[in-house]
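User
Take a look at the entry that follows and flag anything odd:
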Amino acid sequence: METIFALATAQGKAGVAVIRVSGPLALDAGSQLCGRPLPARGTSLRVLRDKDGLRLDEALVLTFTGQTALLVKILLNYRHMAVLPWSRLC
């Protein structure tokens, strides 16, 4: 099973953008984006940073664990995601 990132917000105008991360390395990937470890289960308010450590936005991060996958939902202020190149997240 691979770890994937997917924009889970519908096309058009919205108040938030939801990024879904799932797979065996989802918790590690979410922790890297947040700059510190995420709980295996729970909700936390985090500052998201790009690969160079520059602040992207503040986000509500929800983590869920299951038998085979972990889901991290990251809610961001949509105005930032509309202009933010996805390459800054990786």
Observations:
- Strands lie at 4-7, 16-23, 42-49, 55-65, 70-77.
- The chain has a mean pLDDT of 75.
- The chain has two helices and five strands.
- The two ends are 19 Å apart (CA to CA).
